[in-house]
Amino acid sequence: MTYGTEVLNEPAGLAVRRMAMSGYDRKPSASASEAAVTARAVDTPDISYFDEAELLGTIRRDELGGETHIAANLGAARNTDERMRLVRGMLRLVGFSELGYLTVKLDAQGRPERLYFPRSYLSANLAPHYFEAGYHRHDPRFAAALTGSAPHVWDRRRLVEAWRRAGSPPGMRAMFDEMRDGGIGSGLIFGLPIPHTRLRSIISFAAPSEQAGWITDSVVVQSLTLGLSVHQRFSAYVRAINRRESAAELSAPQMRILGFLAAGLSDKEIALRMHITAHNVDYHLRRLRQKCGVTNRTQLAFLAGQMPTS
Fold it and tell me: What ranges do the domains of the chain cover?
């Protein structure tokens, strides 16, 4: 299956893309349908939920961010409910009705392995059901956000037209019906990597209008500002979860090696401290790089400095 994108000719020339779908499979045979059901069960990522209040004591304050005026206002909110009211108010000003946020943990092959949803930002346009039903495996919007950082503008009318030109394969029919019933007609989606991790966050905006012409450069800029501000906060929470999960998977010797690495010790110095050979230290570091999804010592040391000490 292949997907295409076309650059919108917006007045300010932003690198915004309008989604177009192509390469849908034709109607599958009965055996192919059975295989698709099996593949869907296998390909469905694990889903986790998190609450802001539960993670406040585990995050690094420098990761919360305050680079934008909106991020500062969100940080100054007294609680989650107040932050949600601020976000909803800004969404209405921009013209969208919903904001969806999730973070995807990728496996070694770059496939979604686990999904992290903030309970306070569950949205019909990017909900757990979307993944449980397997829509993510065929939706070009998700594919684009998972692999690139450019914002993509879409509307349901164009998606449906492209789907019909491709022979109306049944795999996406239910998704379109759910979008219609939920009042989701157009939107904007983009993805952002979380540095030094195998995590990637996806931010999605949706509105009832069935034509995307109203999503101008100005709307895109305001949406990106709001989405990046929300991302500054939530990426800190997901980093904390990732540190906790990574630490739980490590052995006691591996944790000691990471502690020494974070302190700036060389392989020889670590070997002397642990009474093992430098060759063994190198072996453990290679295994740690694979397990943590990083490619070099610097990235591993960065992660080691973020991990909980107990």
Answer: 3-244, 250-306
For β-strands 186-193 and 152-155, DSSP reports them as antiparallel
**pTM to 2 decimals?**
0.72
Spatial separation of the C-alpha atoms in residues 224 and 14, rounded to whole Å: 12
Query: Is it true that domain 250-306 has CATH number 3.30.505.10?
Result: no
Which DSSP string do the residues of the chain spell out, in sequence order? --EEEEE---TT----EEEEE-----PPPHHHHHHHHHHHHHHPPEEEEE-HHHHTTTS-GGGT---SHHHHHHHH-SSHHHHHHHHHHHHHHHT-SEEEEEEEEE-TTS-EEEEEEEGGG--GGG-HHHHHTTGGGT-HHHHHHHH--S-EEEEHHHHHHHHHHTT--GGGHHHHHHHHHTT--EEEEEEEE-TTSSEEEEEEEEES-S-GGG--HHHHHHHHHHHHHHHHHHHHHHHHHHHHHHHHTS-HHHHHHHHHHHTT--HHHHHHHHTS-HHHHHHHHHHHHHHHT--SHHHHHHHHHHS---
Q: 162 pLDDT band (50/70/90 cuts)?
A: confident
For the domain spanning 3-244, the CATH number is 3.30.450.80
CA distance 273 to 256: 10
Tell me: pLDDT of 223 over 90: yes
Residues in the chain: 310
Residue 66, helix vs strand vs coil = coil
